[in-house]
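Hi there. Long-time user, first ticket. I'm pasting a complex I've been working with (about 226 residues overall). I'd like to know whether the download I got is complete or cut off, because the file seemed smaller than I expected. Thanks.
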Amino acid sequence: DVKVTQSSRYLVKRTGEKVFLECVQDMDHENMFWYRQDPGLGLRLIYFSYDVKMKEKGDIPEGYSVSREKKERFSLILESASTNQTSMYLCASSLGGPIYEQYFGPGTRLTVT
Amino acid sequence: DQQVKQNSPSLSVQEGRISILNCDYTNSMFDYFLWYKKYPAEGPTFLISISSIKDKNEDGRFTVFLNKSAKHLSLHIVPSQPGDSAVYFCAASPYQGAQKLVFGQGTRLTINP
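Hi, the file is complete. Here it is re-exported in full:
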């Protein structure tokens, strides 16, 4: 069974703080993804990585950066948190190649006050 | 620009009846389609998928239909059970070999006993 874990289930931060969200997968997957989920907007891709130290912008990368130093770990960084970044953040991984299915972590509910 | 659209935010169905969830897409290059199910406070879980070369795929109570000429897919759940109450997302791979997915806004399905 693929397991994707996220460092926190709930997080409350203040405006302007630097925020780190961590994601770890245990199935040696090539690809990892960060999404945010907002009501009425579905899941929107922030960044993804197809290999260690490789990253590609998704649809809404502004205000975010990522880091992938090891294959199993993908971090999302909010350099200076703002209230409009209050959201549910979901990490996912996929094997790659012809396999499209992504496996998701439980999510981190981030509130920026 | 929403490339994958789920126009019904919510759907209510009687237990034992058929649930039909719909999804439309705009890009004829979309190659592979997936349905995910999401319970509150959990990450989405993969449910069923279909390649663009097929028009139907079945897995137990779940069947996905693809109508490429109409750029429409639907998920049928028969018979519906209370445990099916969740948010359902459709997703598409934007082109063959693409690893990232484009998600719809989601439909909240409620199964009434």
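A couple of notes from our side: The radius of gyration of chain A is 13 Å. Chain A touches chain B at residues 4, 9, 31, 33, 35, 40-45, 48, 50, 58, 90, 92, 94, 96, 98, 100-107 (CB under 8 Å).
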